[in-house]
Amino acid sequence: MRIARIWSARATHENWPEYQQHFTRSVLPKLREIDGYLAANLLKRDNGREIEIAVITMWDSWEAIDSFAGADRDAAVVGPNAAALLIDYDRRVRHCDVALSDTASGRR
């Protein structure tokens, strides 16, 4: 079983680079330490007024997600440093079972 954890937020154009750096330097190393963490995607959409952010992390079990999120697995995990860079963010996340996943591994 694979589970996708989906969260979204919004940032100013000015704060986006710093948020991306925070995600790369602070969030990813912590995720990589959790047994059962599989992957993360940081998505960005510039709507002209602000940057829309979506984060999709992949997990191999509910226990792995609980190791990350704690007792309330649907609560967003957003530290004060990240929150300070965001206009707004989801306080709750969504989880979806991954029905199909495909990659183009080996293709260039």
Q: What does this protein structure show overall?
A:
The chain is of the alpha+beta class and 108 residues long. The chain has one domain: Alpha-Beta Plaits (2-Layer Sandwich), CATH 3.30.70. 27% of the residues lie in helices and 31% in strands. It is built from three helices and five strands, in the order βαββααββ. Strands 1, 2, 3, 4 and 5 form a five-stranded antiparallel sheet that branches. The two termini are 28 Å apart.
Q: Which helices and strands, and how do they pair?
A:
Layout (H helix, E strand, L loop, with lengths): L2 E9 L4 H17 L4 E10 L4 E9 L2 H8 L10 H4 L4 E2 L4 E4 L11
Antiparallel strand pairs: 1-3, 1-4, 1-5, 2-3
Spell out the key features of this protein.
108 residues, five-stranded antiparallel sheet, Alpha-Beta Plaits
